[in-house]
Prior knowledge:
A seven-stranded mixed β-sheet has the order 5-4-3-6-7-9-8, with helices on both faces. 42% of the residues are buried. Helix 3 (41-50) crosses helix 4 (66-75) and helix 7 (160-172) packs parallel to helix 8. Helices cover 32% and strands 24% of the residues. By secondary structure, it is of the alpha/beta class. The protein has a single domain (33-218), classed as Vaccinia Virus protein VP39 (Rossmann fold). The protein starts with a helix and ends in a 6-residue tail after the last strand. A hairpin with a 4-residue loop joins strand 8 and strand 9 (212-218).
Amino acid sequence: MNMVELRVSGLPLEYVLGFTRFCDLRIEVEQGVFIPRRRTEFLVHQAKILTHPNDIVLDLCCGSGAVGAAIATDLKKILLHSVDIDPVAVRCASRNITKISGHVYQGDLYDALPHSLRGQVNIIVANAPYVPTDSVNLLPREARLYEPQVALNGGKDGLNLHRKIAEEALHWLVPGGHLLIETSEMQGARTFQIFVKAGLITKIVRDEELDATVVIGTNLSKSH
């Protein structure tokens, strides 16, 4: 099939073209990887405010690698580590971030990382799936039919991955380090409570124009 036929068949335009635009970057995507959303540019913006040269940045549930790539491209001298459980995402992220000297790992969140990073990470960002299982069927047709379930389905209340990420964050963050997770406006208060329970000093930031909500937690402990 040619590109027009693929598009008419319902295949998302980004898959047909093989790339999307995100934070003014060309991000390569392929069928089976989550397509970065414009609202997630707000997560990148919030992370950049908190990131300094030579920081270690960890992008969990990285998908195509777009979030980490956008942070690293603007800030240059950061050390970027990206993780995804899906081999298609890891393959795609490798193409997008190895060109900026990032590292990509396949595995389940922190389990995929070198032990040497424990207690050394300055910024953890995650656009983890947060759609409740029962709501996946309500997503737009293109997402529902073509994007990977593992990148959409966040479990019964949509927050399974948020819990797992927050619960382990203090073991990986330096004192003063930050965890930033994209969530929905409806789930923001619950993600906030998950962060607080994990021992993080927490706030919610919101961009109405992008319909974007990010929960930010800070590690104020002096030692691990």
